[in-house]
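Good day; I would like, with your permission, to put a structural problem before you. I would ask you to consider whether the tokens describe a fold that such a sequence might reasonably adopt. The full record is reproduced below for your convenience:
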Amino acid sequence: MKLPRKQATVVRDAIEQWKRDGVIPEAQAAALAATIDVQYFDWRKLAKYSFWIALFSIVSSVSAALSDRWLRDLLQQLFDMPPIARCTMLAAVSAGLYRWGLVRREQAPDKIYRNEAIFFLGVLATAGAIAQLGILFNTGSGHFSILLLLSFLVYAGLGLWLESNLIWIFALASLGGWMGTETGYMSGWGAYYLGMNYPLRFVLFGGLLTVCALSMETHPLGQRFFRSTLAMGLLYLFIALWIMSIFGNYGDLPSWGRVKQIELFHWSILFAAVAGWAIYYGLRHDSDMTKGFGLTFLGINLYTRYFELFWNSLHKAVFFAVLAMSFWYIGSKAETIWNLGKRD
């Protein structure tokens, strides 16, 4: 069994403890310990980050190539065709990439990151095909949110069919984009829709997505997408709450600038309450994700309020000294808890 050094230490300590407690005999403990093969370098993380960097580099390479006038003109000559033809070509490319990724996953299921990278290229080609479809049916109405809804439906269907969390995440990102642009279109691109600015709309959207994710945990089909859906829901929810705690339900900077920050404090209370719920849920249901989101954004909330209240009123030396002491205290407590876990 190949394990990183830290995990191998934990497993060996567990085997040693079982041997001392008499749970397993000494011979069995020695046999189990002998099966551990320590990996002193985390090749899995290297593979993961290398593929992401490779994909980012591909996108950057294409963008840089398109920025060159001579190459852009050459591509214009090569692809000087109607939008329907470009859409068909990109759809065929994306279908080929999805098929290739599916075959690769069946042949080498252990090559997780390589297979997901192929699916990601298919996602980009699909986005291009949908964009060309939008150009084809563009009536000048500005109602382009329908393309994001179409993207959600396509990505959701592909994610379910290919059982890919990566594609499912793009589906949820498209759904969020559709919600924002559709409500913007329905409000005439004003600051408010049904009395809500954009961050407040995403608070409701993120909350609804989080509730849907939690209901998926015990569903046979939804279990595969539970964690990715929950992560996206919490991300929408907490980022929107953080923005609300700073700007409130105001749609423009002049209106926000005329109010005192204390008048927005109720949004900070709501932000803290939701973070507290996430921590409580994480502790109650042993969910590291909700607990991690809650603790992280509770800290962001507290430090945001600290900056708002004391940046102008405190001398900068005192301000940063208090900041340093607070982080020193948090680090000391975290180190103590970590050492307790090692002794247990």
